[in-house]
Design a protein that fits this description.
Elements lengths: L2 H24 L4 H28 L4 H24 L3
Helix pairs in contact: 1-3, 2-3
Length: about 90
């Protein structure tokens, strides 16, 4: 994965965090359920990444390929969150 992809991922994750934080602050009544869903999606992305990295290791992939496989589920989730947060309410 090129370095720019890591930078984009970090930038997107920061924006998602910021926008979600603002949503939680403006709608505290739904904060508990929203936070629960956010934690669950992060756990799933982490588990999926761990499985993908493990499979890449078993396949004898190079370290950069293993790292990319580990991050891919989180990158997809962050990108999907960015798209959802950009939509008008």
């Amino acid at each position: 994965m090129p370095p720019a992809a890591y930078a984009l991922f970090a930038w997107q994750a920061g924006w998602v965090f910021t926008l979600r934080s603002l949503q939680l602050a403006t709608d505290p009544a739904t904060a508990a359920s929203t936070l629960t869903a956010m934690v669950a999606e992060k756990q799933k992305a982490f588990a999926d990444g761990a499985i993908a990295a493990g499979q890449a290791l078993l396949d004898g992939a190079r370290p950069d390929v293993v790292a990319a496989a580990a991050l891919r589920p989180a990158q997809r989730r962050v990108a999907a969150n960015m798209r959802a947060l950009k939509k008008p309410v």
